[in-house]
Design brief:
By secondary structure, the chain is an alpha/beta fold. It is 47% helix and 14% strand. It has a seven-stranded parallel sheet with strand order 3-2-1-4-5-6-7, sandwiched between helices. The structure holds NADP nicotinamide-adenine-dinucleotide phosphate (NAP).
């Protein structure tokens, strides 16, 4: 299937590892010239080189914290008129909401709600003028089914989801299409490091903890990042202009509902 993206330009945020990296690989395979971001320059540059070697597509590494104005400005300076924007960042920490300060909340809202909103603000009118834009926000299954220890994630991402629901319907007539993807458990560094901590605490092998994450999944496994990347590339493709403001839950069917 030709996704019709050859020659397009895109920004994929938080893409040196994990789900962002997988999205970048899938888009680069379709011939999308990319700017990728992350805070750790050496890892980011290595990922950019790796994706270019894999796909033959130009990938530029722009290091920076996407939750800051400077980080966003640097990404936009390297790709001022993107056709595609994939919003992503690290997730807020686990914990008990009684321990979280206003500062903790501001950090979570900055990273998981305001950063995507300000990037969208910077690019959406240009996309509308050119009559093509695809924006995918990586959120979390916790938007649909809240995870009690991830209260800041539940809250901040729900704020983004509400905003996107409104905006997606304002810009679709100009072929600017905005959707969210909600990951369930995917085998990335974030999932692995959480599993490692739990494994140490309970003195069991890390694979046992990862298997527990999959135990309720109809697929019997956790997700593979490349599956996520390909879903993202599909939602960026030329012919999806009628899929507007969706929240695509990628959790292997874990959320039990007649209508996903
Ligand atoms: P990951 O493997 O830890 O990768 C995170 C990536 O984001 C890294 O490249 C990291 O590089 C970059 N990053 C983090 N904070 C950043 C920031 N402020 N500015 C720029 N880059 C930043 O994580 P992941 O599993 O791919 O998760 C991606 C997102 O999906 C997170 O928000 C996570 O909460 C959410 N999610 C993941 C899962 C899952 O199972 N994997 C499930 C639900 C939700 P640097 O550290 O160098 O910046």
């Amino acid at each position: 299937m030709d996704l019709g993206l050859k020659g397009k330009k895109g920004i994929v945020c938080a893409a040196s590892k994990g789900l962002g990296r997988a999205c970048a690989i899938s888009l680069a395979r379709e011939g999308v010239e990319l700017v990728i971001t992350a805070r750790t320059q050496s890892e980011l540059e290595a990922t950019a080189r790796e994706i270019t070697a894999m796909t033959g597509t130009k990938v530029t590494a722009v290091a920076g914290d996407i939750s800051t104005e400077e980080g966003r400005a640097a990404a936009l300076a390297a790709c001022p008129d993107p056709d595609i924007l994939v919003n992503n960042a690290g997730g807020p920490p686990h914990g008990d909401f009684r321990d979280w300060t206003r500062e903790d909340w501001i950090k979570a809202v900055d990273q998981n709600m305001l950063a995507p909103i300000f990037l969208i603000k910077a690019v959406v009118d240009g996309m509308a003028g050119r009559k093509f834009g695809r924006i995918v926000n990586i959120t979390s299954a916790s938007v649909k089914s809240p995870i009690p220890v991830l209260g800041m994630s539940n809250g901040a991402r729900a704020g983004l989801t509400g905003f996107v629901a409104g905006l997606a319907r304002q810009v679709a007539k100009d072929n600017v299409i905005i959707n969210n993807i909600l990951p369930g458990p995917f085998l990335t560094d974030r999932l692995r490091s959480g599993a490692l901590a739990a494994a140490k605490q309970r003195n069991v092998p890390v694979d046992e903890i990862i298997a527990e994450r999959a135990v309720n999944s109809p697929t019997g496994r956790v997700g593979r990042p490349e599956e996520f990347g390909d879903a993202c590339a599909f939602l960026c493709s030329a012919n999806i202009g009628f899929i507007v403001g969706h929240n695509l839950l990628l959790d292997g069917g874990n959320f039990n509902s007649s209508i996903a």
